[in-house]
Structure formats: structure tokens, C-alpha cells
Design a protein that fits this description.
9 helices; 328 residues; four-stranded antiparallel sheet; alpha+beta
Length: 328
Amino acid sequence: MEHRLSSTNVSFRPKTTLVAAAVLSTAAFLSAVSIGVGSASAAPPTSSQVSQQQSTSYIDQRYASDATFRTTLGAPTSQEQGSDQLRFRDYQNGRAYWTPVSGVHSINGQIYQKYLALGGHQILGEPTTDETQTPDGVGRYNHFRGTTGTGTASIYWTAATGSQLISGQVRDTWASNGWERGALGYPVTSQKKAPDGVSQYVNFQNGTIYQSPQYGTQFVIGEIYKKWGTQGYDTGFLGKPVTSEGTTPSGGKFNRFEGGMIYWSPATGAHSIQGIILEHYQSMSFEQSWLGYPTSDEYDTAGGKASNFEHGYIVYSYATGATTVHRF
């Protein structure tokens, strides 16, 4: 499982494929689309002016009327193209899209480069926002309508993490946990398939969101995430997360996995517990018993296995197949 991608900042240089004569100058374009859009005291437009104004596309209308939109995108570098359900036009710094559902929105810079690399609107659908600054002022993002294969999608960018894709149920879970201002932080990888070829995950600054057919979408964060990593993530003995991080009555944290659990508390740190020892611990009400929290991972003993806790330990015997609990 890949757990961090390095980011490389690459300047955007769009390719101009049409001859200059095919591209309207900005000044000429603005003059053309402003016909008949004067003050209330202006003379009524002629029939030819009305016809010209009505033929102006939604993308061109916004480009003419929105100075920020125009400055962000730069001069047009191609003719508008598409169908009556999706149209787009390329500019020096990016692309503008229009659909009846989403209206007109722009995408530019490194988010635009990532969008194209992932397949553009054919894979992610059209943008439903302009590129926008995140509330914390650190990053930028575009949301996309998505497709049947992806679900609703977003690309987030920061200088530290690069441009990363997040979509579908993984995105929904991130959103429900506060987006980038939540415990997970910004995504540091794009969404990708796990080693089983079916599950998906996105890694974040402080953890991961993991979606599997068996257990749905779960998040693992902080010290528990680090401990899971030292034990092989989803390919280790713990396997896939079965729950998201939970909180114990005494303020500790835990995640349940296919092959066991990881517990954390401020006093004991993060430790895993598994197998028949975990079953015995569960029968005693976990950390609420006199044993308290785990203070070690499971380890080998003469003739068995054992795990230590704050006030005692549980031993599993190969010879008897049974577990016994002991006080320190």
C-alpha cells in the first residue's frame, strides 16, 4: 500500500493548436459580446444586435462580464467545442466548461493538469465550482460532478501535497469529518486501488480513509494509523479496517480490523491485540476491566503467546489451547 507521494510543481503551458486568425483577440471579443448590454438609457438594440447577442455562448457571456474569470483564464486559445449537453473552451491558463446542470465554471493551473491527466470530463465530469481557495487559506480545490464510475469528485492542491483526487464514498467520509480542517488534513495521495484490486483508499497528512466491499468506508488516523503501518497495513495480519476510529469511555482510542484491534491512550501509546487473547480481553469488557489498556503488542513466550496490559497480562498456551489472565 502506497502511503505518501512526493509532489512536483510544474508550470502550466497550454498547447495552442489553432492558427492565430481563428482566435478572437480579447478586446475584439469583449466588444462583440457587449453589444446591446449598456445602461438603462442606451438606445434599444437593433434586430441584428439582438441576434448576435443571443448567439453568444454562456461561456463567452461569463468571460465578457466577469473580470476575475477573464484574468484567471487569460486569452482564449481555441474555439468553443462540445455538444448541447457539455461545452468547453481552452484559454492560456486553463479551461472553461458549461453544462445545463452545472453552469459555467473554470479550472486552471496544477488542478487542471491533474484533471486532464486523469481523463478530464470523460472520467470526472465537468467542474461544478471554479478553482477556489480552501477556508484555511492553504490550499485550492475544484469540485466535479463525477460519473457513474467515480461518484462526486474533487481535486485538492497545496504546495506541500500537490494535486490529489478524492471521490465517491471516500470523499463523503472526508467531508463528514471536516474536510481538510478535520483530523485527517489534506490528501497526500490520489484515490487508488488497494492491493486486493477492489478496495480503494486515499492517504492524508494524518491518516487514511479506506473503502472495502466487506466493511464499507472507514478512517484510521494518528498513532493508531502509524501502528497499523508498522504491522503491514491491509496486507499485514491485522488486514482491513472494520471500524473507523472510536473513543473509549475513559478517553482512549481504538480501531477494529479484520485480524484484531489497535488501542491507544495517552499513558500507554498504541498497541495491537489479536486472536484468542483479544477474545479473552473482550470477555472481560476490554479496557474497562481491571486489566486496563494494552501496553505491548502480542509477543512470543515459551509455549505460547502473551499480551501485557496496565495491570496484568494474558497468556495463550499452545499445549492447552486456552488463555489465562494474571496480575502483575
